[in-house]
Amino acid sequence: MARLATLALDSDSDEGIATTGWSDDATGDSLVIAYFDRACRISGSLSEGEHQYRFNVAVPEEGYFWLRGRKLTQETSEMVVSEKPAQLLLLLALRPRR
To answer: Could you give the C-alpha distances from 37 to 1, 42, 55, 68, in angstroms and in order?
Structure first.
């Protein structure tokens, strides 16, 4: 598995200037695109403070897949394989200059 990342770089220094991420415009769900070299299943959970992250990813074959982080409750999120949304947003959070 390899997660593909989008980067926002300073054109003069190639230094990262922003944290980036994908979002579904209709739902606000966070999205990640990943490449899998074979069919697989990723399952389990991870707790961070009061929040629980569940993984229920079933990849049927080799290829690129969208992974959707959807909020189930205020304290629980789940990551699943998803179709590409109709409208994607690329989010940028600029870093302060040093």
So the answer is: 6, 14, 19, 19
Residue-wise pLDDT tens digits, 15-64: 888 888 899 999 999 999 999 999 999 999 999 999 999 999 999 999 99
The secondary structure element, H or E, covering residue 86 is none
Helix (H) or strand (E) holding 97: none
Whole-Å CA distances, 75 to 24, 43, 51, 57: 20, 18, 5, 20
> What is d(CA 97, CA 35) in angstroms, rounded to the nearest whole number?
33
DSSP assignment of 3-58: EE---EE-TTT--EEEEEEEEETTT--EEEEEEESS-EEEEEEEEETTEEEEEEEE
pLDDT at 54: 97
